[in-house]
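Quick one: structure for this chain?
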Amino acid sequence: MNEKKEVGEKALEYVKDGMVVGLGTGSTVFYTITKLGQLVKQGLSIKGVPTSEQTKQLAIKLGIPLVSFNEIEQIDVTIDGADEVDLELNLIKGGGGALLREKIIANAANNFIVVADSDKNVDTLGTFPLPIEVVPFGYEMTVKHIRELGGSPKLRQMDGTPYLTDNGNYIIDSSFQEITHPGELEKNLNHIPGVVDNGLFVGMADIVITIIDKKLETKVRS
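Got it. Here's what it folds into:
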């Protein structure tokens, strides 16, 4: 069973004709977007808002019409993946480096649907290092402040140089062990000068489609 494909395609049950759809980034939502492209070719009329340049190029390749924020009033549904999902449907996102745009687009959606394979389910967030997007200027001081909050920060690198987001920023990946109060940590991190945003998505997911005990399950935030 390809869990990523199963949960990714299941999310399309929430996409209806005429909707504006936020298109996430990552290996699971790749299946969502691929199937969506097939449905568009079959006559489904939607407009997509991509969360990354990578997703934008995939959508263009598949023939999915795209729009920008200045062309729309709202996003009907956003579908995206996650690196971790806890029991209260809080998330860690940003492993793919698109956390800022993902958070903006998720926040703008009437419904935010998360697709996650079984490996992403945890009791408490924190095993996956938390991505934090920071401006390059003075990032060394930003790292010190992250460490003061109990993190073990590390600058993300690619080919020996700092990884750059689509927004031209750095990513700091920081382990916090168990994140028992994700809302508090999210706010404290975002109060640090130089932090643009972080990969904690607290109370944002409306629906999580996942696999539990080898069975497809849909969780709805209460």
